[in-house]
Description:
The chain has helices at about 15-30, 70, 115-130, 145-160, 175-180, 200-210, 230, 240-250, 305-325, 330-340, 350-360; strands at about 5-10, 40-45, 45, 50-60, 90-95, 135-140, 160-165, 185-190, 215-225, 265-270, 275-285, 295-305, 330. By secondary structure, the chain is an alpha/beta fold. The protein folds into two domains: about 5-195 and about 305-360, Rossmann fold (3-Layer(aba) Sandwich), CATH 3.40.50.720; about 200-305, Dihydrodipicolinate Reductase, domain 2. It has a seven-stranded parallel sheet, sandwiched between helices. The radius of gyration is 20 Å and the shape is globular.
Amino acid sequence: MAKKKIKVGVVGAGNCFAGLIQGLEYYRHHPLNDAAGLMHPVLGGYALSDIEFVSAFDVANNKVGKNLNEAVYAYPNEVDWIKKLPKTDVKVHESPALDGLGIYIKERVTPVKNRPLSLLTPAIKREIERTDTRIILNYLPVGSQKAVEYWAKMALETGCAFINCMPVFIASDEMWAKKFERANLPVLGDDIKAQVGSTIVHRTLVKLVDDRGTQIDSTYQINVGGNTDFLNMKEQGRLISKRISKTESVQSQLRKRLPDDHIYVGPSDFIPFLSNTKLGFMRIEGRMWADIPYNMEIRLEVDDKANSGGISVDAIRVAQLALDRGHAGPVYGPSAYFMKHPPRQYADPVARQMTEDFIAGKGE
């Protein structure tokens, strides 16, 4: 096992993070060898128990100032798989709101009154340095372009690896990728794939039928849910990068791209009573031998926040391995396996092998 802890700071103590930290507590009390939900009980010598959240940042006034173990239960978070987390001394600190709160989220989240950036930024840097945070895990809401870029800059200026779980393009943006490369820091991104979610299922199916020689004529993916993520995405202006990310994830698996008006991949609506349940609906229409038509429809029902944690827990440990080895810039194979919009797209079996090779120390 590893001789040191993985010291992580989280930006955005919302539902996704609540699922991650409560899931880690769940596995503390269950044997890992045959446990469901884990790709790697131990990854590169690092166990789940080696992950420590040592700093946290948020904008909600009912989270800032609270201990992290209490803040993850604060409204509008809905994840309560573990009824009570062990007490921690880690407090949630103030993050700049910038563009992190959409108009619908403000119905549920009252932001803390921000100090000026001239005061807030030095305070954030001091907290990162005081806690020896080495990895920044970004769980900001969809559409938070300025806020995500702010935290990418914080990672660069404090010597942290950056894991970008959201569809703002950092690892896949050439300018940002070069900044991390020059700083000799790893970056993983962008837009985390679910463990078993609509996009990973959709891209697997289109690749299957494409590899079997059929012609895909059109396809769609529609998702609905009832948590704050879907509420936030009611604001169409915040969805530009999200739709690009999800659509390119599917298009990248095809030998020939579909015309833009023959593919739709994206979140569709907010249904409050669904809570953390996400429903995904997929359809593929095409032609096989002798131009004979076929179609398929898939309905997927998942807990949206369980889907994120099963991937984040490996991304964190890969980021630590990258730090240990002095990796500079995007971590290509794991980014392609863990993320929807990586710097380089690969078929999932290829990306998986690249990830296993990276873990084994075979490089990229």
